[in-house]
Amino acid sequence: xxxxxSTPNSSAVEIKxxxxxxxxxxxxxxxxxxxxNEELNQAIKLLPANYNFEIHKTVWHIEKNKATRVxxxxxxxxxxxxxxxxxxxxxxxxxxxxxxxxxxxxxxxIDDYSAISLGCDxxxxxxxxxxxxxxxxxxxxxxxxxxIGINTSHFIETVKLNFKPNSRLCFVGIVQFLSSLxxxxxxxxxxxxxxxxxxxxxxxxxxxxxTSPRLPEIDAIVFLGDGRFHLESILIHNPGxxxxxxxxxxxxxxxxxxxxxxxxxxxxxxxNTARKAKRFGLIxxxxxxxxxxxxxxxxxxxxxKADKEYTIVLLSEIYPQKLDTFSDIDCWIQIACPRLSIDxxxxxxxxxxxxxxxxxxLGNIKWQQPYPMDFYSxxxxxxxxxxxxxxxxxxxxxx
Length: 399
Fold this sequence. Notes:
Helix content is 29%, strand content 18%. It is α/β, with parallel strands linked by helices. It folds into three domains: 2-9 and 149-256, Rossmann fold (3-Layer(aba) Sandwich), CATH 3.40.50; 19-148, Rossmann fold (3-Layer(aba) Sandwich), CATH 3.40.50; 260-361, 3-Layer(aba) Sandwich (Rossmann fold), CATH 3.40.50. Strand 11 (243-247) and strand 12 form a beta hairpin. Helix 6 packs across helix 7 and helix 9 (260-274) packs across helix 13. The longest helix has 15 residues, at 260-274. The model is unreliable at 8-16 and 391-399 (pLDDT under 50).
């Protein structure tokens, strides 16, 4: 990736705090005795000032639900704050706190089942959006996005410096920076045509590594966030659209590329090999909620209809050495993370297909170009995704 200009006048740039409107509701309003608890407010100061862990709201929800044992789940990047938050909640809520230390890759990894097995009656999941609705979790659950305040003025000035006025821009990012993204749009829309797309059930502007929107005709994608995993999703889904990433930590704007042709060739080779397979292994991911029983049932029905033998294997982590022990399996289908097949499929000795790729191999759908990034979308192309409306298994889908 190439770095381009991103220092418009950094010495004169101020840090703008994201302004949040307080909507007072009688039922959900946080009591004043929690908001004005001086000892609690002093304890909160131990956490980074620009990270919104919503401690007051968490204390209120724990008290309101009369919880006694609380599970906390963090992505790797926030786990360093887990002990401080645990101490705060134990001190001010008089509850026992369990920190769940297993790896958490994304919102799909929410582990309400483990929380229940640990005897917890309340769970707080940090750093991701509500991909699994709270009315479907098996335990009372609260999501904390952990919004991070950034130097929005620098981001805005960087956009002005690098894009011509009247450019048609698409703003997307990760959930921690969505407030900053929307604020920047308001400040720039008198000079640019800016869209913030939505792939429901995700929030407007949010992209995941497996789910992103197809875009209308635009001049460039501007991604706000660190790392490439989520960014690559919208690159895969929108080939040919110039893409740029602004890292709010380094304050650098970079040109981002993706090798579509190489990915297409690798995945089509795997699909073609899978067409010759006699026995399939169906992996249901057990890392949190990654695996979808609904998708598993759909794939089973399609394999039965195609007169294929299969074996179901439950795995929390999928890696080549583990799968190599199953020598009688000709092809693997993993119902966990589609990006595992795209990013790491080449490292496995047998084809490792996503549910979409199996549908192509069985002839249920045609190969899609661009490659679909719609795994959690409500408007996904087929029943190989968790949120798709159920279609009879004998339906042949063409797009």
